[in-house]
Amino acid sequence: MSFLRPLQLFIMGVALAAAGIGLSADAGKEAPIVPPRQGKSETIHLFNGKDLTGWEGYPDLWSVKDGVIVARNTAPLNTAPTS
Predict the structure, then answer these.
(1) How far apart are CA 10 and CA 82, in angstroms?
(2) Does the pTM of the predicted model rise above 0.85?
(3) Which residues contact residue 16 at a Cβ distance below 8 angstroms, ignoring those fewer than 6 apart?
(4) Taking the chain (83 residues) in consecutive chunks of 10 residues, what is each chunk's mean pLDDT?
(5) CB 46 within 8 A of CB 56
(6) Exposure string over 8-24, b if 16+ CB within 10 A, otherwise e
(7) What is the DSSP letter of 2?
(8) Secondary structure letter of residue 31 according to DSSP
(9) Helix (DSSP H) and strand (DSSP E) numbers for the chain
(10) How many Å apart are CA 65 and CA 71, to the nearest integer?
(11) pLDDT in the model for residue 75
(12) How many Å apart are CA 4 and CA 9, to the nearest integer?
């Protein structure tokens, strides 16, 4: 089993060489600076802090208490698909 690690390193080296990735004369050059993409930033509200409107799941397990989502399992879960 000790031959696996050297074999993995050899295969990785062959793959990198085939892809043109590896040490070259430019190895000391800095990578180019790529600016961030420009776009719209928006906030997605996942929870309204009051109830589970829009959420799917087991209503006998999940609830909201004092503005926090809580789970309470008092019986085995029914994993049958719901329609």
Answers:
(1) 51
(2) no
(3) 22
(4) 71 75 67 88 88 88 92 79 74
(5) no
(6) eeeeeeeeeeeeeeeee
(7) T
(8) P
(9) 1, 2
(10) 10
(11) 73
(12) 9
